[in-house]
Amino acid sequence: MRIRFWGVRGSTPTPQVENLRYGGNTPCVEVRIHDHIYIFDCGTGFRNLGKSLLTEYGERPIYAHVFLSHFHWDHIQGIPFFQPLYENRDNHFFFHSSSHTRGLQRTIEEQMADPYFPVDMTEMVAHRNFYDIEEERADFDDCRVQSLLLNHPQGCLGFRMETDNAVFVYATDNEPGHSVFDHNVRKLAEGADVLVYDAQYLPEEYAARKRGWGHSHWREAVAIARESGVKELVLFHHDPDRDDLCLDRLVEAARELHPQTQAAREGAIIEI
Ligand SMILES: [Zn+2]
Ligand SMILES: [Zn+2]
Q1: Residue 159 pairs with which residues in a beta bridge?
Q2: How far apart, in whole angstroms, are the C-alpha atoms of residue 170 and residue 198?
Q3: Which residue among 149, 192, 225, 233 is least crowded, i.e. fewest CB within 10 A of its CB?
Q4: What percent of the chain is modeled with pLDDT above 70?
Q5: Separation of 3 CA from ligand 2 center, angstroms?
Q6: What is the distance between the alpha carbons of residues 271 and 2, in angstroms, rounded to a whole number?
Q7: Residues with Cβ within 5 Å of ion ligand 1?
Q8: Cβ(101)–Cβ(202) under 8 Å?
Q9: Residue 27 carries which DSSP code?
């Protein structure tokens, strides 16, 4: 299993020089298992993934499963700029998420509706399939994916991907302090090789003025990793105001409690 980070920033892109070492694109994480492609979230990093896939595949068709945690802008904003959706009639994309209000397909298509975008989704020639999912466990070619709800305004799904010898967990946009969701996140993370987890706020910032915004901090991330026996903790969904030096300091502090910790960085690859 190979995990590659295309977007690691929370809330809004931050193309500022002081943020560029970790990266300014919003969430998108690619997982390859053999030659199968799985994608978690379609923030602005999704655009660069699209360009890379076109270079790699050329005329060959691309098949990918795309898991969306939820529909806040930072997790879907790359979709209209993902070239493989426009390029090849033989490309197939399978979207999986939960949208209680309008259904998954409509929720995604309305992102490009008049007057928000110059063209609508009918310009996309690739096959698009939409699967409305809830908390469930589904089998794919070479892995199983468990989804559970997290604590976030308008809802959010966390995902646990398992193969016979690796466990990857993508759990972002989650606020601690609710018994059901605190349990869900630990259930997802149980024994994971890699846990990607929301660490948007500083612990003191969260306590002072960010309760109810739906995000977490590195101390909670470390607590989950330790309680759940996680091997590698990856702090994710960096706040737009968290510059590279601040992220360095935060990783250093987290490593004192959980040595196998890193902050997600655009372009970084983890092999399990
Ligand atoms: Zn977010
Ligand atoms: Zn969100």
Answers
A1: 147, 170
A2: 9
A3: 149
A4: 100
A5: 22
A6: 5
A7: 10, 74, 173
A8: no
A9: P
Is 231 in contact with 192 (CB distance < 8 Å)? yes
For 181-223, the pLDDT digits (tens) are 999 999 999 999 999 999 999 999 999 999 999 999 999 999 9
Cα 152 to middle of ligand 2, angstroms: 7
Closest ligand to Cα 71: 2
Q: What would the two tokens of residue 83 be?
A: 């070239």
CA distance 41 to 26: 9
Span from the CA of 56 to the centroid of ligand 2 (angstroms) = 31
For residue range 13-22, what is the model confidence (pLDDT) as tens digits?
999 999 999 9
Q: Which two tokens stand for residue 114?
A: 């008049």
Q: How far is the CA of 215 from the centre of ligand 1 (A)?
A: 8
- Ligand 2 centre to CA of 173 (Å) is 5
Distance CA 18, CA 37 (A): 32
Instruction: Write down the residue that tokens 């009918």 correspond to.
Output: 122
- Largest pairwise CA distance in the chain: 53
Q: How far apart are alpha carbons 244 and 14 in whole angstroms?
A: 12
- The owner of tokens 């990783």 is 251
